[in-house]
DNA sequence: GCCGTTGGCCAACAACTGTTGGCAACAGTA
DNA sequence: TACTGTTGCCAACAGTTGTTGGCCAACGGC
């Protein structure tokens, strides 16, 4: 019972539910992804989902745990941050649907939106802090990076605007990398609220 | 009956429903904005909403009709496109909630997503075609502009990431304008699929 | 005065939602 | 063998949703 790492027969079911949940949340968003649909995908009774995850909210929390696994900036050349970042984002996003699920759900679900803010505060800001010059604009710069990357995810995966959705990875990198590089390293433009 | 422009007594109700619908769709997205809530906001019976707009889908279509009212590029200096565009987007978005409603709904509702694509194809692409050099990359450039602007709308209004949501309009313009300018006018970077 | 039209509300329907409790089949242990 | 805990399914609940039909009051032209 308290066997810690002992493999239970139900572990496979648990995992199947989680995988189905990720797929549904990514494809349909939080409200339209129903427990019944997730259960059907996993070939299991809806009651099982409740038994193993307690509620829809907690199932989502488990399905949307997301680590960007950002590279260590110390490993990168300062002039190559932009390229490396865009390429990493694309690969990480297309590896599984978790990020798109989180993004889609964050638009209508408060818990998902809070989790999105946590990803930003806990993963993007620290990276930018290490990569950007030590001015007082780290949070601004991180926000700008996030705005371009979230816009890319929206237009490429969610809205699927044809020119962006059809672009090759290399083209995306070639166009977007210089923008990230600019947000990360260019001196701040003149501002009405300079400190 | 066929009086065309004659003011009917019900016009005020119709308008109240539409205004409430826009507010609700913008705040809650398509599925969470219920007919009952919209009707309550408009101080009216839910059945009225159905009588005047037929169905929730058609109500949304009426509420989400959106014209960016983009400026005529012929009126702008070529070097000032970026600034003018960012400023225009911010003003237009904050003027009413229609665009945010459309964006929020487009994430989970197919009709809204299609309408978003129409706005892109019918309003963004033509503007970029007039402003950008006559290379074969007009659709690409327009998509990139859209990716940055949609990302800005997402991080500023929907996710409300603190650094972006709190930025002054002038700061947003100062940071984003050069990026749009680049997408519009810079020569295309080297590509794996050059024509 | 009358009467058709319009504007509005109420009550109800059928479908679907997350969620719950009870019951059967099975595994492992003694 | 009997016992105990796990794994699973079925049926049902209570609430909410979009949507509909019928009824009532107020208007406007005659």
Salient structural properties:
homodimer; 195 residues; Arc Repressor Mutant, subunit A; 10 helices; 68% helix; DNA-binding
What can be said about this structure in brief?
The structure is a homodimer. By secondary structure, chain A is mainly α.
What does this structure look like?
The structure is a homodimer of 195-residue chains. The relative contact order of chain A is 0.11. Chain A contains ten helices and no strands. Chain A folds into two domains: 53 residues, Arc Repressor Mutant, subunit A (Orthogonal Bundle), CATH 1.10.10.60; 113 residues, Tetracycline Repressor, domain 2 (Orthogonal Bundle). Chain A has 195 residues and is an all-alpha fold. In chain A, helix 7 crosses helix 8. Chain A binds a DNA duplex (30 and 30 nucleotides) through helix 3.
């Amino acid at each position: 019972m308290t066997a810690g790492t002992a493999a239970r027969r139900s572990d496979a079911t648990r995992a199947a539910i989680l995988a189905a949940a990720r797929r549904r949340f990514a494809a349909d968003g939080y409200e339209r992804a129903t427990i019944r649909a997730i259960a059907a995908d996993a070939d299991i009774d809806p009651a099982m989902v409740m038994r193993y995850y307690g509620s829809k909210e907690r199932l989502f929390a488990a399905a949307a745990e997301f680590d960007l696994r950002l590279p260590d900036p110390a490993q990168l050349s300062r002039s190559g941050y932009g390229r490396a970042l865009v390429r990493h984002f694309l690969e990480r996003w297309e590896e599984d649907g978790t990020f798109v699920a989180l993004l889609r759900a964050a638009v209508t679900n408060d818990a998902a939106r809070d989790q999105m803010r946590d990803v930003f505060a806990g993963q993007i800001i620290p990276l930018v802090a290490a990569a950007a010059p030590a001015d007082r604009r780290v949070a601004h710069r991180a926000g700008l990076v996030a705005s371009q990357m979230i816009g890319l995810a929206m237009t490429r995966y969610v809205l699927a605007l044809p020119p962006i959705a059809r672009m090759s990875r290399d083209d995306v990198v070639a166009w977007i990398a210089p923008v990230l590089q600019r947000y990360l390293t260019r001196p701040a433009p003149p501002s009405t609220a300079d400190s």
